[in-house]
Design a protein that fits this description.
The chain contains 3 helices and 5 strands. The protein has helices at residues 10-15, 45-51, 94-109; strands spanning 19-32, 37-43, 59-61, 64-73, 79-91.
């Protein structure tokens, strides 16, 4: 990848008629009161709201680790995707993960945005 290659933002892609899906997963914890054990699951916010008991105050979102996936569909229906996994030792950073995914898509697929 050339250093001068500009990595487009999600907003720029959407303005250029590309469909962009960004899926973010975080580690959620929930304390199992029966087994007296802490369970850790990698879930999206939607999955967590359906799966975890938010009426109970024994849940939480961990700041460390996570996963970001981007799926780009071009106006001519070609699909490009990439994932960025954040180490369980690193603080989750959504903006950085999106840039990593976009850089991988540009490099792997030789992706070029066609602005109208």
């Amino acid at each position: 990848m050339n250093i001068e290659t500009k990595i487009p933002t999600v907003q720029e892609l959407r303005k250029a008629s590309y469909r962009v899906s960004v899926i973010k997963k975080r580690f959620y914890t929930q304390f199992d009161t029966v087994k007296r054990k802490l369970n850790k699951q990698l879930l999206t916010k939607f999955e967590a709201s359906n799966k975890l008991s938010f009426d109970d105050y024994r849940y939480g979102i961990l700041a460390k680790g996570g996963l970001t996936k981007i799926v780009i569909t071009s106006p001519d229906q070609k699909e490009f995707s990439s994932e960025a996994v954040c180490s369980k030792h690193d603080t989750f950073n959504s903006k950085r993960a999106i840039r990593i995914c976009m850089g991988r898509i540009i490099r792997f697929y030789n992706f070029q945005v066609k602005f109208h």
